[in-house]
Design a protein that fits this description.
The protein has 129 residues and is mainly β. The chain has strands at 3-7, 10-13, 18-25, 34-39, 46-51, 58-60, 68-73, 78-83, 92-99, 116-119, 123-128.
Length: 129
């Protein structure tokens, strides 16, 4: 059974940092591109960042570029999202997801949620002003 478990969320003041983790099991995650999405209260879930299967390519939404860094440790089946200079607008539930291995990781496809095969349950990030 494939399982993704996010952790590392919490309450932080604006300007602070958090590091999210996504631990996978039941699958050889090292061969899959993966992404982070987030959903703020009353809003649709949106793309945050993606990383290729080998970590060589990373992509970011404009709203987080320069503040967030995505990475992965294939040997540990774990992906991370280092979030710096957090803003109240970053408050959301953050989800990790596994991208369809049959598709190229393009800037268009990586934003389509129905192209992801597996999702975690999410971790709450709250940034106070």
């Amino acid at each position: 059974q494939v399982q993704l478990v996010e952790s590392g969320g919490g309450l932080v003041q604006a300007g602070g940092s958090l590091r999210l983790s996504c631990a996978g099991s039941g699958l050889t995650f090292s061969i899959y591109a993966m992404s982070w999405f987030r959903q703020a209260p009353g809003k649709e879930r949106e793309f945050v960042s993606a990383i290729s299967w080998n970590g060589a390519e990373t992509y970011y939404a404009d709203s987080v570029k320069g503040r967030f860094t995505i990475s992965r440790e294939s040997g540990k089946n774990t992906m991370y999202l280092q979030m710096n200079r957090l803003e109240p607008e970053d408050t959301a539930v953050y989800y990790c997801a596994v991208f369809n291995p049959g598709l190229p990781l393009t800037t268009d496809l990586m934003r389509r949620q129905n192209e992801y095969h597996y999702w975690g349950q999410g971790t709450q990030v709250t940034v106070s002003s």
